[in-house]
Design goal:
Length: 111
Amino acid sequence: MKSLLTATLLLAAIQTAGACESFGIKGQLSPDNQSIVSRQPIALKEQARQYGGYSEAASVIEENRQQMLRNGQIPATVRHQIDLDLTGNVIQLRCWAKKCSTDNGDHTCSL
């Protein structure tokens, strides 16, 4: 619940500022799911292309985030980092979805 409140406040701040980030974070778990072995930037526009739009990508990533949080085999500290990373990605994708729905002429919105 705390991360949801933080995410909501962050989304409001981002939307007020009018700027959406271009990159999110992609992580890779170890084979035994006990640690994150790498975290690297991922182009959110590529995620939107892959899933058919910014809103669609946000929905898929949110679903993945929730599944990861329910996975009791992943340590709490790892789940927490996954939650932070994926929540940030979802917030940014929603920011782009909102921006592109109101400003169709923006060339950065074309997929």
